[in-house]
Amino acid sequence: IVKAEAVQRIYPQVDFAIEHHQADKEDAAQIEQIVRSFVHPFDLGKPPLLRAGVIELEPNLHILLFDMHHMVSDGVSMAIVIDEFSSFYAGEELPPLRIQYKDYAVWQQSKAHRERIGRQEAYWL
Prior knowledge:
elongated
């Protein structure tokens, strides 16, 4: 927050690592303890606002851990993440994105969009 206004910070480089844990697949208490320690508060002043981890139970059996602060996603976004991750897991390739969120933000600030919103506001007033 700068001068009582929320701001977005874009970092050119962020250190990110996937946590790796090992556990006995028969030891539910150990697995639960790893999961509980994985989920903890984010420091909103430092990136990243998401974390990922893996619990290896056997060489070909793992649990994926994924924690994301609600400021960087919502329910719709999480559904997309899950769908795309499932596609990758199934060996599929995703099509390239046609637009990025920043493209939408630029459009939203355009004169044409502001005029359209002004007409809609005038109608409702």
